[in-house]
């Protein structure tokens, strides 16, 4: 999702311009949360990032569009998009009509089961038009956009899930491992995570690939990076070595390397880009 919204979610920075709606109790294992954010008209272009939770991002109307720019191409998405996996150097530019977005954030295993997708679906196309998924799963985007209020949109999505979904199959050990990685904010090695889970690496790798669509190392890297990113953009005085070490990186060069991979820019270049 746009990283400026993910930042608010991670830090719990909610107000009338950006807030969370909890899913109904019976769907808590499927949906992490519903979110509504007003777009800052001054920031027309945003980095896309995923912290491990797949999302659906609905624009304000079915006719609104965004331009998605990756390393090698730019394409247009209309109405809504889905994103997951490890997203590297991808930016989204809004058209002038969208003032608000509605986001559904899913638990990964539930998302892939709900839409009958292989967990590797997003590996090479981490940002994709939702219509490509919806049309194969009887989700009517047209009917969704007929919902007049946020509460109606929430009800529409929840009704769809309740009518479509039967049960979630996420191994308990895998869920416990995900919770552990979140708790330590990615400040760990794959070996330490494997030891904590009490399983061998091959089992963990197989489970992550099947249910999350990422390797354990990739998932840990996402958590480590997003927390380092939050510290960077929240700092008045940027000290890259301090930020790197405090977030589990070996040194500032390793942080710089990750930052360039995920954003296409150095930290200072990115901060200048954000300030415009």
Question: Could you characterize what this model shows?
Answer:
It is a single chain. This protein is α+β, with helices and mostly antiparallel strands and 276 residues long. It folds into 2 domains: 3-164, Jelly Rolls (Sandwich), CATH 2.60.120; 172-275, Arc Repressor Mutant, subunit A (Orthogonal Bundle). Helices cover 42% and strands 17% of the residues. The protein has 12 helices and 10 strands. Strands 1-2-9-4-7-10 form a 6-stranded antiparallel β-sheet. A 4-stranded antiparallel β-sheet has the order 3-8-5-6, with no helix packed on it. Helix 6 packs across helix 7 and helix 10 (240-246) crosses helix 11 (252-263). It is globular and about 50 Å long. GO terms for molecular function: DNA-binding transcription factor activity; sequence-specific DNA binding.
From the structure above, extract its key features.
276 residues; alpha+beta; Jelly Rolls; 2 domains; six-stranded antiparallel sheet; four-stranded antiparallel sheet; 12 helices
Shape: globular
Largest sheet: 6 strands, antiparallel
Number of separate structural domains: 2
CATH fold description of the largest domain: Jelly Rolls
Mean pLDDT: 93
- How widely separated are the two ends? 20 Å
Provide the succession of SSEs: HEEEEEEEEEHEHHHHHHHHHH
Protein name: AraC family transcriptional regulator
Organism: Pedobacter polaris
GO molecular function, one term: DNA-binding transcription factor activity
Pfam family, one: DUF6597
